[in-house]
Recover the amino acids of this structure.
């Protein structure tokens, strides 16, 4: 992996590869290089290097688009070190579609650039296992014994994995205690609504979340049912395609998108609900992803229009005194793909403020990336750790005992950072806190999450 650097490459190193056909990136010329994105870019703030800023990366991309340079190692390095948080899109006054340009650039890299063997291996592992729940379940079954026999503690204590591969070490460090098999089992295919039914919603259960943090999905089903929704969790659903798209495998991402659309169309749901920001953002983007597919464009657009984050439904519900007090100080981290990709900021806070006894402490730089970035923390562990340390410092300063975040990647990343820094703060999903208020958390929940 490349260490974090504060020096620029020689410009000549950017011109060593064969130039690509012009016009590949639509919208890249909309960037006027005003620099308003710089203060919002976590990698620029960390490195202080122009080519590691959004406008720097767009300059490189435009140079390729205009046949002034090719896909060089320097170009690959700067695009790889983008976390993809889309904070620059929020800041941009020109409406540059940075996220879509990044996807196209990474797809081009995947097609035109041959990576070194260790990097190819990590990317193969990530795209071969993470997006496929069945394969992941088998692997986690083995890893459960790895943890049970104490091998995880030994590996972390000796640091041997870090010497072999920083990416493998980062992946292992993110692994939480694997829940028992019974908790990792499938949800009920249909959960009825409590009281008068508001509608029928489909729940995306996710790939990693259903196995590593299954309590989030179970709390989500209970909360949606309590709010009057019939919840459908199709057993045959797969991945949303985000992992493949983030790693430049656009065609694989499109295939998974089509399969997921078919599953939820067959389920006959009014809305499709996500409790993971990255997945929700990806599903909302199917309209763009499949816009060039004559057979699927209309279906993808209709599907994207029905996608909702769970906080949107639960914050709008009138709980009418049903919520029990949950006496804790909570701060809220805004997952990048909730705040910047989906522009959902107020609903999670509004949901938390409805809970009696809960004190919400605002988090400085709440929408600054924690370093997770889908699989960024595995592919770029040095940069991810720098961003994580900054996030942990901000959380510590709030004095809160709980940090809430609406994305599994953020939760795993922040949990690891808090543990390594010995900061006694618990990281949970907002819907879990609501579930405690609805159904009463266990004594363990209250002791771990309370003041």
């Amino acid at each position: 992996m490349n260490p974090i650097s504060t020096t620029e490459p020689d410009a000549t190193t950017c011109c060593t590869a064969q130039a690509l056909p012009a016009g590949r990136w639509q919208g890249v010329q909309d960037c006027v290089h005003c620099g308003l994105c710089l203060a919002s870019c976590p990698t620029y703030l960390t490195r202080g290097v122009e080519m590691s800023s959004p406008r720097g990366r767009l300059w490189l991309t435009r140079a390729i688009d205009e046949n002034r340079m090719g896909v060089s190692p320097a170009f690959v390095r700067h695009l790889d070190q983008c976390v993809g948080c889309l904070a620059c899109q929020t800041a941009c006054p020109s409406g540059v579609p940075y996220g879509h340009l990044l996807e196209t650039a990474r797809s081009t890299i995947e097609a035109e650039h041959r990576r070194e063997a260790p990097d190819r291996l990590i990317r193969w592992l990530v795209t071969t296992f993470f997006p496929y729940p069945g394969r992941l379940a088998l692997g986690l079954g083995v890893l459960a014994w790895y943890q049970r026999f104490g091998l995880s503690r030994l590996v972390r204590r000796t640091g041997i994995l870090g010497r072999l591969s920083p990416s493998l070490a980062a992946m292992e460090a993110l692994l939480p205690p694997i829940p028992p098999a019974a908790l990792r089992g499938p949800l009920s295919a249909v959960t009825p609504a409590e009281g008068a039914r508001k509608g029928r919603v489909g729940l995306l259960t996710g790939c990693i979340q259903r196995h590593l943090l299954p309590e989030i999905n179970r709390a989500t089903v209970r909360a949606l049912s309590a709010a009057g929704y019939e919840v459908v969790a199709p057993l045959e659903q797969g991945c949303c395609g985000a992992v493949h798209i983030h790693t430049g495998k656009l065609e694989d991402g499109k295939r998974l998108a089509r399969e997921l659309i078919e599953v939820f169309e067959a389920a006959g749901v009014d809305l499709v609900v996500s409790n993971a920001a990255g997945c929700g953002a990806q599903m909302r983007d199917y309209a763009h992803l499949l816009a060039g597919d004559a057979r699927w464009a209309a279906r993808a657009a209709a599907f994207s229009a029905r996608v909702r984050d769970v906080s949107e439904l639960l914050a709008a519900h009138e709980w009418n005194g049903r919520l029990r007090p949950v006496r804790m100080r909570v701060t809220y981290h805004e997952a990048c793909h909730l705040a910047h990709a989906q522009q959902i900021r107020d609903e999670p806070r509004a949901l938390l403020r409805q809970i009696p006894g809960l004190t919400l402490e605002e988090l400085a730089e709440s929408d600054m990336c924690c370093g997770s970035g889908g699989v960024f923390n595995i592919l770029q562990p040095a940069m991810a750790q720098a961003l994580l340390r900054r996030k942990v410092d901000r959380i510590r300063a709030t004095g809160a005992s709980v940090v809430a975040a609406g994305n599994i990647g953020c939760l795993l990343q922040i949990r690891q950072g808090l543990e390594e820094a010995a900061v006694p703060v618990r990281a949970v999903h907002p819907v879990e806190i609501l579930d405690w208020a609805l159904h009463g958390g266990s004594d363990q929940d209250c002791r771990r999450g309370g003041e």
Remarks:
- The chain has a mean pLDDT of 90.
- The two ends are 41 Å apart (CA to CA).
